[in-house]
Design a protein that fits this description.
Rossmann fold, 4-stranded antiparallel beta sheet, 10 strands, about 25% strand, globular
């Protein structure tokens, strides 16, 4: 039984190689219940690969990943049973174009969690209304803006009240004017107590929403701390160099 002090997620000395190239090199990380941990770092630093190992889309070469008390890297663990407890949103919305917005949101509730159509769609409509898209329930995804599609993808991910929500650069495919509406929804999820591990290149948002910020470089956690520590007083030269580059790209 998981105790209240057990982290929702524990990554313990995880290594991931593609061929002979190490992409994750001994990553260790914990996420407590109701905590928002934000991963930052340049492209290729390992952020997305880490999220994929947690959702068992990529097997690890060494180390362990625990969801609560369960070692989900144990070969005997059923990946679908793990994914049923983890909500995931990627930068490309991955909505099914041939299904209505409501059917997209209700799909996992029906197929993974065994809810009947009426119950699943009632929950889906409740979520769509909550994110301001209740009137779009019968539309198909291609009739929505990118920001609206991404909000639908988030609604789909949280429909089953997952223990952990993974968000992978969810604004990077959006026009700048649409970024705010998606990040506002993430802020609401934080207020409602969701447990979130997210990768983002939006430094201002990371500073406002994170409980902890983790900076990765070349598959290694270089520095981690509160937003104030990382953004106002970074200790590692690599962190300082990265932040100087992304916060002052012309300077």
């Amino acid at each position: 039984m998981t105790s209240s002090t057990t982290p929702v997620l524990r990554v313990d000395n995880v290594w991931k190689l593609f061929g002979e190239h190490p992409v994750l090199r001994g990553i260790s990380l914990e996420v407590a219940a109701h905590e928002v941990v934000v991963l930052i770092g340049a492209s290729g630093s390992g952020k997305s690969t880490l999220l994929k190992t947690i959702n068992l889309l990529e097997p690890v070469n060494d180390g362990q990943i625990f969801l609560g008390d369960e070692d989900i890297t144990d070969p005997q663990v059923k990946p679908d049973a793990v994914r049923a407890q983890v909500g995931v949103v990627f930068q490309h919305y991955n909505l099914f174009p041939h299904m209505s917005v409501l059917a997209n949101v209700a799909l996992a509730l029906r197929q993974v969690h065994g809810q009947d159509k009426a119950t699943a769609e009632a929950r889906g409509l409740e979520l769509l209304t909550r994110i301001g898209l209740g009137d779009k329930a019968g539309e198909y995804p291609d009739r929505l803006s990118g920001g609206q599609q991404q909000r639908v993808a988030i609604a789909r991910a949280i429909a089953s009240d997952p223990r952990l929500l993974l968000l992978d650069e969810i604004t990077s495919a959006l026009d700048p004017q649409l970024v705010g509406e998606v990040l506002d929804l993430v802020r609401e999820l934080k207020k409602s107590g969701s447990t979130i591990l997210m990768a983002t290149h939006e430094m201002g948002f990371a500073r406002r929403v994170a409980d902890r910020v983790v900076f990765l470089k070349d598959g290694v956690i270089v520095e981690a701390g509160t937003p104030e520590q990382i953004f106002e007083n970074p200790q590692n030269p690599a962190t300082r160099e990265f932040l100087a580059r992304v916060l002052n790209p012309l300077g």
